[in-house]
Amino acid sequence: MKKQKIYKTILLICMWVLSLSVIFPLLLVIVNSVKTAAESDIMRLTLPKAFQFTNFKVVMAEGKVLRSFFNSVFITVCGVGLSSILGTMAAFVMARNPSRLNRSVRKYFMLGLIIPMQVISLIEVLKKLHLYNQYVGLILVYVAIFLPMTMLLAYSAVKALPKEMDEAAMVDGCGPLRLFFGIIIHLMKPVITTICVTQFMFIWNDFQFPLYLISDSNKWTLVLGVYGFIGKYSSQWNLVCAHILISSLPIVLIYLFGQKYIVDGMVSGAVKG
Amino acid sequence: MNLKKAYPNYFWIIPLVIYTVIFILPSIMGLLFSFTNWTIYSPVKTFSGLDNYKNLLNDNMFRIGIKNTIAFTVFTTILKTVVGFALAIALNVKLRTKNLLRTVFYLPTIFSGLIIGVIFKSILMPNNGLLNVFLSFFGPALGANDWLGQPSTAMFSVILVEIWRGAGFCMVVLLAGLQGISTEYYEAATIDGANGWQKFKLITTPLMLPTLNTVISLNVIGGLKVFDIIIALTKGGPGLSTEVLSTTVYKYLGNGAMGTGSAANMCLTIFVILVFALVNGGLAKLEVDQ
Prior knowledge:
The complex is a heterodimer.
Chain A: H1 2-32, H2 54-62, H3 65-96, H4 100-110, H5 119-128, H6 135-159, H7 163-171, H8 176-187, H9 189-205, H10 208-213, H11 222-232, H12 237-269
Helix pairs in contact in A: 2-12, 3-6, 3-9, 6-9, 9-12, 11-12
Chain B: H1 3-6, H2 13-33, H3 51-58, H4 60-90, H5 98-106, H6 113-123, H7 130-135, H8 151-179, H9 183-191, H10 196-224, H11 228-233, H12 245-254, H13 258-289
Helix pairs in contact in B: 3-13, 4-8, 4-10, 4-12, 8-10, 10-13, 12-13
């Protein structure tokens, strides 16, 4: 027993030493975001002489951060909202009525879980629809990408709900829309939360699609903003770090709030991405 | 109850239209474009057969891109899974602060790949980067490497950054799998006098195969599609040493070679589908055999 206790202590120490490799890089960003440009020229983990909170003000002014922040919020919320509502509605009908047509439509959607997006022709399609360089275009791209994953998760969740409940509601004169929005959607809250948290993180962090589909810097998301910002201020790491911190804060909050939902979603959802 | 009336098809009409127009249509068009000589200079798309694919095979950037994509995928998949599995086993032991440790190791996964890339670009800087400053404690020669600037170490560095980012994710998924194994197996094995290694080999590994299958598939597909982290760290350079398939697509598009870019993208798609079928088929068979 005593031997086991020593093993455990050694293991614990090893794990904490190893965890420093994760903590240091993140700490580096935090520490350097409040240094002067000269101090952050050599990126070290030392504390600054004086905390330069003005860095955040400078970034806010220079990097169009506020604008990008609202762009990110708008695109992410619309993408997540549409994909989760539309996807669960579709999955509900497909799970309840396994007709031949519904089964084929479901299979057709599942193709989207594996196949990567063809970006060059996507740009062409969006240009033809006058959706290139538009918020709506980017949002619809995320919806199209995430519908299959939403449907996969929601489908099994609907299957787990008793069918008798629908029947009882219908006997009482409840139409399909009211049945779904009044009853079903509330019973699916756990799976919908999983879907929302996972997709929120993906869309917020995504770099590839805004890069390809948004050319106007007024419509950039925060992550794309960071990329544009390092092009201009590559020697001022203090400002870059401040920008990174602002861009990552919402994701950290979502993570702390939705920690337990993330794993479920990541496992089933990361097939796409 | 009339199923069709109770569960009307209009519930999936809008998703179907969005998915078809924004996802399926570009996929089909991408396939068609890959057989045309479409460039930004000659917007008229005329059929050119397999020319684009032939061009790709003769293009050094694409050939190296394929080689690098495979190397990146193989190394990151193996190492992330091994590191993640080790972390999962270590943190499945009843340790004090194990929940906090899990949170710490998972943390890198939540950030954008681009942002992780930017952070590590600064850490790996030749003169003032944190890594070199740290290494020069052990000897000035050790701290003088330009990790991302030399062709010989660039790919290696990119792979390490990806492991830093992705191992925590593997850990969490594998932990969920480990917690699903009943402790009775281990108790019975202890009574039979099995040692730790035997338990790992004969109980843990076979029962973890389905979870490992998930983790490996996810890592392989993610590895084939890698983009953000490469763009942020090296943009495919120095030279072509970290060029991967998705960055070649980006570069063909940037050069205005739309047809060739579509063909490159199609190759990536075929790759992903093939690997997905292989990994799933192969590992599923292994599970049955057990």
